[in-house]
Amino acid sequence: METCEVLVVGGGPAGSTCAGKLVQAGLDVLLLDKETFPREKLCAGWITPAVFAALELDAEEYRQGRVLQDISGFRTGLIGGAEIVTDYGAIVSYGVRRYEFDHYLLQRSRICRQLGQTVTTLDWKDGWWLVNKHIRARLLVGAGGHFCPVARLLGASIGHEEVVAAQATEYAMSPAEEQQCSVRPDTPVLFFCRDMKGYGWMFRKGNWLNIGLGRRDTHSLSRHTSDFCRFIEQQGGLPGGLTGRLRGHTYRLYGGEGRRRCVGDGALLIGDAAGVANPDSGEGILPSLESALLAAEVIVAANGDYRRDNLEPYAERLKSHFGSSNPSLSPSQVSSQISCYLGTKLLSNSWFTRHIVLNRWFLRR
Ligand SMILES: Cc1cc2nc3c(=O)[nH]c(=O)nc-3n(C[C@H](O)[C@H](O)[C@H](O)COP(=O)(O)OP(=O)(O)OC[C@H]3O[C@@H](n4cnc5c(N)ncnc54)[C@H](O)[C@@H]3O)c2cc1C
Fold it and tell me: In this structure, is residue 189 part of a structural domain?
């Protein structure tokens, strides 16, 4: 029987960050992930400088031997419509490859006890969690993404929740494809669906191309993705085509209907498992890190007594950090009719695009 104080389920940005902080505080932590790292993760890999600040990490240190694409502008508009180019003249964001980024964070967190193992069973016995019938833990930290087993344990009705559904792919372009691709690496493409329920993106990071589309309405995802890809192809942005490359994934945005319960006796949720992604842009990496850091503080302060009352401050801090409402003029707040109107009228306006769409929704400046 293996024993630990805290068992972290999932080694993505949330899990590795929380586990790293707990190890630093001297706790005995075991991290389980069903994958062995480095692993592929479906994601655009767009991050803001705030991610490096949250990680107390120097971007230049990260850049050594890894892909870190500087971003200084965006091409935006409605799918099929005219575009606006917003140039900031300075770095406002970065592109990373999750394959490298998540592996780097896991290694940096210096967790000695890690296992490539899927968590399949969680039972409560004699004051301990019994995980997969052979690991004992006092506290479970659920960082296993949207389908995390700890979220299920805390009552999440996975499959019946409001989610964002996305299809995406990332692949290395051939030298010929790189030459033909009309999208500049420092100026990615963000084009919205006409009903403003989602958007497609195309990022270049070195010779890697990442393209996808996410929507709050899951029903016609493939049609919207095809429309977007065709549009980009017509503009010369997608030289090799995408046949068979797209994969799908769902996750929760913060503040939607029926929020997940994030705290229970001897258990809490962080990252996508808690559903903390930004409701306007779908950005999930920074909120995952922030929730992980908040959770680690509360766990350390609980000083070994992980009853729900002692973990409840985490739920309160999540609420005060992420708030209960979204910024005004946010597409997640207004009705679909107003959204359509906003989309058609305002996305062709340079001021609105720079100050509201980019600065407020995406860059949170
Ligand atoms: C298509 C797409 C594009 C996105 N683009 C962006 C973007 O550009 N920028 C951004 O900020 N966010 C983006 N996001 C959101 C972002 O990917 C997530 O918010 C982020 O990965 C959440 O981190 P996490 O650590 O909570 O979970 P994850 O990164 O999902 O990590 C969870 C880990 O748990 C493991 N796991 C799951 N179940 C089990 C189990 N039963 N047992 C053991 N291990 C388990 C998994 O293998 C995985 O490694 C995107 C999401 C999608 C779907």
Answer: yes
Tell me: the pLDDT tens digits for 281-322? 889 999 999 999 999 999 999 999 999 999 999 999 999 998
Give the rounded distance of the alpha carbon of 151 from its chain centre: 17
pTM over 0.85: yes
Q: Which of 43, 120, 283 to mutate to test the pocket of ligand 1 (most atoms within 8 A of CB)?
A: 43
Which DSSP string do the residues of 59-94 spell out, in sequence order? HHHHHTTS-EEEE-EEEEEETTS-EEEEE-SS--EE
| CATH number (domain holding residue 16) | 3.50.50.60
Asked if the bond preceding 49 is cis, omega within 30° of 0, the reply is no
> Measured from the CA of 119, which atom of ligand 1 is nearest?
42
Domain of 291 in residue numbering reads as: 2-45+97-159+256-322
Q: Which of 63-72, 242-251, 302-311, 328-337 has the lowest mean pLDDT?
A: 328-337
Considering its fold, how many domains does the chain have in total? 2
